[in-house]
Specification:
The structure holds 2 protein chains of 2 kinds.
Chain A (H helix, E strand, L loop, with lengths): L1 H10 L25 E5 L5 E6 L5 E8 L13 H9 L8 H10 L5 E3 L5 E8 L3 H13 L8 H16 L2 H13 L12 H6 L2 H11 L5 E7 L5 H9 L20 E6 L5 E10 L8 H13 L4 H9 L7 E7 L2 E11 L3 H17 L4 H18 L3 H13 L5 H4 L1 H6 L3 H11 L6 E6 L1 H4 L6
Parallel strand pairs in A: 2-6, 7-11
Antiparallel strand pairs in A: 1-2, 3-5, 3-6, 4-5, 8-10, 8-11, 9-10
Helix pairs in contact in A: 2-5, 2-8, 4-9, 10-17, 11-12, 12-17
Chain B lengths: L40 E4 L5 E6 L5 E8 L13 H8 L3 E2 L2 E2 L2 H7 L4 E6 L4 E8 L3 H13 L5 H20 L10 H6 L3 H4 L6 H6 L2 H11 L5 E7 L3 H12 L22 E7 L6 E7 L6 H13 L6 H9 L7 E4 L13 E7 L6 H17 L4 H20 L4 H14 L8 H6 L3 H11 L5 E8 L13
Parallel strand pairs in B: 2-8, 9-13
Antiparallel strand pairs in B: 1-2, 3-7, 3-8, 4-5, 6-7, 10-12, 10-13, 11-12
Classes of the chains: A alpha+beta, B alpha+beta.
Chain lengths: 451, 471
């Protein structure tokens, strides 16, 4: 810091000799309250959560369905994506174009997508259309037509997306990283082969839907401003839906081992890096809040240590970041960065240096407090939009947490001590158990990487 | 398709590019729809700083946004990318906040921040817990008043910006397509037609002297707008704004260069080979009517009717019926929305397709759709649906990311029209648009001779990375 201050003084002599002024004192924080929720279940097992929020007359409706890529066998990669795409292609009583117009009439756009652990059908509309939007979502997820006439077009779209995604170094890195951590689990199969994708029939689509979709696998969230009578609409729209089968998810047995994967991208001006490991704890684990604090300190914030080092001090990269990915009954952590090719080895060394530094000594109290404040601030921001609130509520439901999870989140983050941070870094962030993926120009990188 | 970003960092770059614009009441006349009027207080400090305030207590947050009336369009001619490089320097420290200290003050008090460079403005914003408002105003005033520039920080940020260009343009397929490429082909006036991200050579050549001159010319209160949105006390906020900003001297601004584009009289067609792309792509662009003219509002509706949403005519034709792509994307001003710019602009539609489909096939399918709009008036039902979509989009924008979308419109209308309350006029002006005006606008602006076509050839076709499947 002294070096920087000196540089500033030399560069701007007009300021020399003037005392620095301190920031004005902070006012007292305002209280933050989570929106009140109403939760209930239908007789067929479908769960519903309603929350009133916001100043503008909009309402978000999201049906989270407990199936996705995790339910695919090794021969079914992206079958759930194909199912989700085809759910937009019309219902027993409405053609796809009618569905699109109906959504637009309410000011919304229907989105259906498959995710790793769950899929969703969602729309955000003007408040006066809340009941109609519920009916539209109900029709789409209860009575999809899965028209064979649209299969080849939708498959063509997925094939094109597959090629486009895999032409980016980031997707190549993601694929290799997942495959290394989860060699025998759907989490490790991010992309299908083209021939696999070409093989799915409309029968496969219908069977996957029939095996997985149903009321007891579905949780409907309605958040925003709406007439409470929407509850009656929900009860009627979903009353006759088949309960379907119970939720089926198998947790992975991730691999935590030192592993370097170097993928050649001749001529690349940057190397795409991903360094991390599985961390087998869930959000309900007592160490979880401290785990998130460690992530934020290392690379999860703009002021984090790795970002400060390889971007703000060294200028090797533009957008480095670290992330906690919460999986079913486990989690993973990684740092990702696209770095100038000639600084590939230097960047890796600095990232490892920062991880080891946190394992050796606890952060000072001020640094820790700053990161805790950031996490609390982001939590408030995440609970300040219709979509954000749905994200928070569904996180709690997906991971089987108690209602207290969100209510006590701030308290848990603030309870993390300096010693906790070091202990978590030491316990869980073992460089000897990390996978490093590098996508870059092999010839230029050569043997420089020490790993 | 690449998300357009020219930002300080990528993590909060999600925001304003999705913002479409708005409408404040309306919808089909059966039910009386709930309405939302944006509360706005607007005034100017004696030094020229434009201040707009909008209170919303939905969450204990406040957005602080400072917009400078300098975008990449009018950066120095031998310094492409300079407006954006300078944006980065604004984070490198000021008199009372050495490098990194403002970031720590923001994040350490629970907030997030970013900056971005657009056609006609450069913005800096924080979304923070309400009780941090005074600290943010102090920090923004400090860097408006006394930015600290140094060789070392310039060199560091030249490295960072070089990496930003590499990650967003040079090391990825469709890098810069279409948002950075198409204006360079479609426009004739250098101000609208140069490489806004900058040639790496120009970025490397920038000096501290360039930065000081740029700062002294453009970064002054009489060339800026401050917008606050969120949970704050208005009288107190005004006192703080007075306290921290009123002593900053104004500058003498140079005359604005002539940004006008000549009327395009013949179709232009260009081909670009993207050596990293495995699938070809196509962009079509048309020059749009002057911002806030009656024809501009008609163009905003045309964008909804033709391009926005699954019900739009081009999506139905090119995606659903012909199966050329999974989506056709675009709009007016890909780096923002139909209102947050101040000069010539393009309406663009773009898609990625398979090699078996030729660009002329796609154009031949799109042309009858566009011709139909030029040849006969759209129906009132089409207009009504476009209006509802716009109204919903506005509401989402006004509340997204703690209220950043609202601050963006307030600051843009302050800078460019001296009237942020125009947000609340949008509906009235859009409702004036008739089927006849839409047809007239389409006839002039969706003319084939007003069109620029950019064909992206897939230089990496066949080098498929996907055939091996999961590793």
């Amino acid at each position: 810091m002294r070096i920087w201050a000196l540089a500033v003084l030399l560069a701007a002599p007009c300021l020399a000799g003037e005392e620095r002024e301190a920031p004005p004192p902070l006012a007292a924080p305002k209280p933050f309250a989570l929106p009140a929720v109403t939760a209930f279940a239908l007789k067929n097992g479908m769960k519903v959560t309603l929350a009133e929020y916001g100043s503008v007359p909009m309402v978000a409706i999201s049906a989270r369905m407990a199936f996705g890529n995790i339910n695919e066998t090794a021969d079914q990669v992206w079958l759930s994506d194909l199912v989700a795409e085809l759910m937009k292609e019309g219902t027993a009583t409405m053609a796809a174009e009618q569905v699109a117009r109906e959504a637009a009439r309410m000011g919304g756009q229907l989105q259906v997508s498959a995710g790793t652990d769950e899929s969703s059908a969602r729309i955000e509309v003007l408040s006066e259309f809340a009941a109609d939007a519920v009916k539209l979502v109900a029709d789409v997820i209860e009575h999809p037509k899965f028209p064979e006439s649209e299969l080849e077009r939708v498959r063509g779209n997925l094939l094109r997306q597959l090629t486009v995604q895999l032409s980016t170094p980031q997707a190549q890195a993601r694929r290799a990283f997942a495959a290394a951590l989860y060699p025998d689990h759907p989490y490790g199969r991010l992309f299908p082969s083209e021939s696999q994708l070409k093989g799915y029939t409309i029968g496969d689509v219908r069977k996957f839907y029939a095996d997985n979709a149903g009321a007891q696998r579905t949780h409907l969230y309605v958040v925003g401003r709406f007439d409470p009578a929407v509850r009656k609409t929900i009860e009627v729209a979903f009353a006759t839906w088949d309960p379907g089968t119970a939720v089926k998810r198998a947790p992975p047995n991730p691999v935590a081992a030192k592993n370097l994967v170097l993928l050649d991208r001749p001529g690349a001006v940057q190397s795409t890096l991903r360094l991390g490991l599985p961390i087998t704890i869930s959000p309900s684990h007592p160490d979880y809040a401290a785990f998130e604090v460690v992530d934020s300190l290392l690379g999860g914030a703009f002021t984090s240590r790795i970002t400060n080092n390889i971007r703000e001090q060294k200028g090797y990269t533009y957008s480095p970041f670290s992330q906690v990915v919460t999986r079913y009954r486990t989690a993973e952590w990684y740092e990702a960065a696209d770095v100038t090719t000639k600084f590939t080895a230097d960047s890796i060394r600095e990232i490892q240096f920062e991880i080891n530094r946190l394992r050796k000594e606890p952060p000072d109290a001020k640094e820790l407090k700053g990161i805790q404040n950031l996490m609390v601030g982001l939590f408030v921001l995440q609970n300040s939009s219709n979509q954000g609130i749905i994200g928070q509520l569904s996180f709690v439901d997906l991971h089987g947490l108690t209602d207290d999870y969100l209510k006590t989140y701030v308290q848990r983050v603030n309870a993390v001590s300096r010693e906790d941070v070091q202990r978590i870094a030491e316990t869980y962030f073992d460089p000897g158990k990390m996978t490093l993926v590098v996508v870059g120009d092999k010839e230029k990188i050569g043997e420089s990487i020490k790993f | 398709m690449e998300k357009a970003t020219v930002t300080r960092h990528a993590r909060t770059a999600v925001c304003i590019a999705t913002l479409a614009f708005g409408l404040v009441s309306g919808a089909p006349a059966t039910d009386a729809p709930a309405q939302f009027t944006v509360p706005i207080t607007y005034y100017k400090l004696p030094n020229g700083l434009k201040v707009s305030l909008s209170r919303d207590t939905s969450a204990p947050l406040v957005v602080v946004a400072v917009y400078y009336n300098i975008g990449f369009r009018i950066e120095p001619k031998n310094r492409t990318g300079f407006a954006h490089l300078f944006e980065h320097l604004m984070f490198e420290g000021s008199k009372n906040l050495p490098k990194g200290e403002f970031d720590k003050l923001i994040e350490g008090n629970g907030g997030v921040s970013n900056g971005s460079t657009r056609f006609d403005f450069t913005n800096y914003f924080e979304v923070v817990p309400s009780h941090v408002l005074e600290t943010m105003l102090w920090g923004e005033a400090d860097r408006m008043k006394s930015l600290a520039l140094s060789e070392e920080n310039l060199k560091n940020q030249q490295g960072v910006v070089g990496n930003e260009v590499k990650v967003n343009v040079l090391n990825r397929p469709y890098g810069g397509f279409p948002w950075l490429d198409v204006p360079q082909y479609a426009n004739k006036n250098w101000y609208n037609a140069h490489n806004f991200y900058g040639d790496l050579g120009d970025i490397e050549a920038a000096t501290l002297k360039d930065a000081r001159e740029f700062e002294q010319t453009y970064y002054a209160p009489n060339n800026a707008a401050l917008a606050l949105v969120g949970d704050f006390d208005e009288d107190q906020a005004k006192r703080w704004i007075e306290k921290y900003f009123s002593s900053i001297p104004s500058s003498k601004l140079p005359p604005k260069p002539d940004l006008r584009e000549p009327r395009q009289e013949a179709e232009q067609r260009f081909t670009k080979t993207d050596k990293l792309a495995e699938k070809p792509a196509l962009a079509i662009a048309y020059h749009v009517p002057e911002r806030l003219s009656p024809e501009h509002y008609a163009m905003v509706l045309l964008d909804q009717i033709l391009l926005q949403g699954d019900d739009s005519l081009l999506t139905q034709e090119l995606v659903k019926k012909r199966g050329f792509s999974d989506s056709v994307d675009g709009g007016i001003n890909l780096l923002g929305n139909a209102f947050n710019y101040n000069g010539p602009m393009l309406w663009m539609a773009t898609l990625i397709h398979d090699a078996g489909v030729k660009p002329d096939q796609i154009l031949a399918a799109a042309e009858p759709v566009i011709d139909s709009i030029r040849e006969r008036p759209v129906t009132q039902e089409q207009i009504d649906r476009a209006l509802v979509k716009l109204r919903a989009q506005l509401y989402k924008d006004l509340t997204q990311f703690g209220g950043l979308g609202r601050a963006d419109l307030m600051a843009s209308f302050s800078l460019f029209n001296d009237n942020p309350a125009l947000i609340n006029n949008l509906e009235k002006d859009l409702r004036k648009v008739t089927p006849e005006l839409i047809q007239k606008t389409a006839k002039e602006y969706l003319r084939p001779t007003n069109r620029t076509v950019l064909v992206l050839e897939a230089g990496a076709a066949g080098k498929t990375h996907s055939s091996g499947g999961a590793q």
